[in-house]
Amino acid sequence: MPDATGLEAIAQELRAADASSVLGTSFDRGRAEIQIDPAKNVAVIESLRRRGFDFLASLHGVDYYPHEPRLGIVYELLNMTDVDRVSIKARVSVEDPRIASVTGIWPGADFPERECFDMFGVIFEGHADLRRILMPEDYEGFPQRRDFPVGGEPVLFTYNETEHYGKDR
């Protein structure tokens, strides 16, 4: 992990390229995090990749209900040479949950972006195959949002029902 000084040096480099790209930084319990403007996520991530953070360890969603912007997209990036880790966080509103896809930088972001779309409703613009990955295609709602009803309605996956239970069922 970059220490607090290293984190500020990275953020300063990003700000030098585009002053509005970095909204803030935090260093807590050894975890370095950079909060970015969601409209600049691809530029920031490409810049970090050139800086050596060339492994996308994780991409996941977070719901910060009741705070706005409510939905967060967190990228965990690793620098395997320097053994560093940095988290990049972008937040989008529920009314316009759009952010650019990073599958052009990391093809392995395909399924994590689809899962984030499926569970939180974040739309990754430019994603080649953005559709549900865990829930049925006709499912309504986003189960990982904090305002989703607990216990909701049961999910029936009917596409292979006859395969497992026979045609009589």
Radius of gyration: 19 Å
Largest sheet: 5 strands, mixed
State the order of secondary-structure elements, H for helix, E for strand: HEEHEEEEHEH
Query: How do the strands line up in the largest sheet?
Result: 1-2-5-4-3
Residue share in helix: 10-25%
Overall geometry: globular
The overall pLDDT average reads: 90
Structural class from helices and strands? alpha/beta
User: Percent of residues in beta strands?
Assistant: 25-35%
Specify the number of helices.
Answer: 4
Low-confidence stretches: none
Number-wise, the strands total 7
- The termini sit apart by 55 Å
List the SSEs and their pairings.
Layout: H1 4-17, E1 22-28, E2 31-36, H2 41-50, E3 55-63, E4 71-79, E5 84-92, E6 98-100, H3 110-120, E7 123-125, H4 161-165
Parallel strand pairs: 2-5, 6-7
Antiparallel strand pairs: 1-2, 3-4, 4-5
Characterise the protein shown here:
- The protein is an alpha/beta fold and 169 residues long.
- 24% of the residues lie in helices and 27% in strands.
- The chain contains four helices and seven strands.
- The strands form two sheets. It has a five-stranded mixed sheet. It has a two-stranded parallel sheet with strand order 6-7.
- Helix 3 links the parallel strand 6 (98-100) and strand 7 (123-125).
- The longest helix has 14 residues, at 4-17.
- The protein is globular, with a radius of gyration of 19 Å.
- The relative contact order is 0.13.
In short:
This protein has 4 helices and 7 strands. It is α/β, with parallel strands linked by helices.
